[in-house]
# Entry
Amino acid sequence: MIDSVPLILTVDDDPHLLDIIEHHVSEWGYKHCGVENPSQMWEELEKTIPGAILLDIALGEEDGTAILCQLKERFPAVPVLMITANASIEAAVNSLKSGAYDFICKPLDFKRLHIEIDKAIKHNQLSLQVKAFQSASRRNDFHGMIGRSEPMKRVYRLIEAVASTDASVLLLGETGTGKELTARAIHECSKRNEGPFIAVNAPAIPHELIESALFGHEKGSFTGAHQRHIGYCEQANGGTLFLDEICEMNYNVQAKLLRFLQDHEVQRVGAKSSKSVDVRVIAATNRNPNKQIENSKLREDFFYRLSVVSISLASLKERDGDIGLLTRYFLDLATAKYGRGMTSISQEAMRHLETYDWPGNIRQLEHIIDQVVITNNSNELTVQMLPDEILKGRYQAASPPIGVQEVGKAKKSALSVQKMESNLIKQALELTAGSIADAAEQLGFSEATLYRKIKKYGIVRKYV
Amino acid sequence: MKDKQDNQNQNENRQPNSKDSSKEKWSMLKQKYLRDLPDQLNGIKSTLEADDYSKIKKQAHRIKGTSGTYKLKNISKGVAQLEGHADDRNREAIVNIIHKVMQLVEAETDKLETHSLSAALNSEGGIND
# Structure
């Protein structure tokens, strides 16, 4: 069951106070759990990680500040709001020094408590996201590509070699092996990296529209052409055009693309003249091109024109040692994306992940980690959380092939990281009412870096 | 058509809105707390027999915070004084305050019960109208 409502855990030795806090906290839309002593609190923390903890300083014979220190040691990310009926400056300072998020006096002012809980939860989610993002960014080994296995090292070498040329490249690999990511890496390493990167997924475009989508059309050139359309080949001028699943394009379109590869000229449908463009083409297929040629699905001349250089991407099971790296990377991304605190993986769970076949490759791994993080609010990914197909160690034909998702659902890691960074900056600015200095501190950036990133992502500061 | 509309209006009258039900819940919790307070105050009396002033302070401290949160200001203030007398180990003052706070608890209970009763009567009248 998906459960994204944060839990507020209150520790106070007066059950009547727990009653009234529960009454309010539930009205604010949070889940609540009230416990009367620290041992009950530790028991609860074994089961779930709360979004915030309300902790009474005077817990019968126990000292709340000492418990706070233990909490911060074991659950540093969870914000703890201290509550007390004795409002002394000394107690407040001691609590804050010991890592309390804030200090609230009894009698409780529920309007203030509501604001503080909301703030603490948002702050906690942002901190988790920043941490996970930084961790994910550090693992971003090669232009968003993760992996240190021999097949990947070979791919990195090939990318660097072809990036300095304008040669067409054909990427071969099973679904979910990172063909678009590889195409982006070639683009980013090349002198065209300031230009556009246009990705075209052929199966996603209806056959009757593909020519117009690729080459554009003039207004009125056919029924429904209400205005001029600039095609992908023209949009990619000065940059890179990535044609995914080329074997799904019909022969006629392949012939037109072949001509485009030869003379680098685009003629919009209905146009009287053609236009010269400077485009590098990278194509990809998950099928065996030779078989496709035999079956008349791929033009031989088009194939040879495209595969000046061809790069084969290894399946995940062939990438020895990369599953662990990728799992950690996707876990960091997912915890940041969904505001969860799952930071570790049990050895047994990792063993299952490493021995599974991964027919949907990296995309399937990403999907499964997302699924586990969304449906479990725990600090460790354990074997019990893994889907049956992983536990049984084989792919179940009955379940939908995760790697073959519809176009657009496939998240590209490099893009995810950039989008996440942009989202984190927006959240930090919102939380700090637009203060660059405060937001930069929260995010661990310098102010200059933050300014640069705000400009890069086109973020508007609403509160200034 | 009119009957249908009348029924609808009647149903709307019967359905307590979320604000009302929240107030009702708050009132119930407060009543529950007031019912329990005499036991807590008697607990302080027992502790006084054992001359355990530091425990008295803790017991009073707890009542001070919770009663204040339930907006029982007079009770909270009274118990705050009791906390001070525990520091001074002033047995007589503690006994007096417990007595006064007991009276405040009774008064608050009466007030709340009267309020609840009139609210219930009003609500019944609303249905009969």
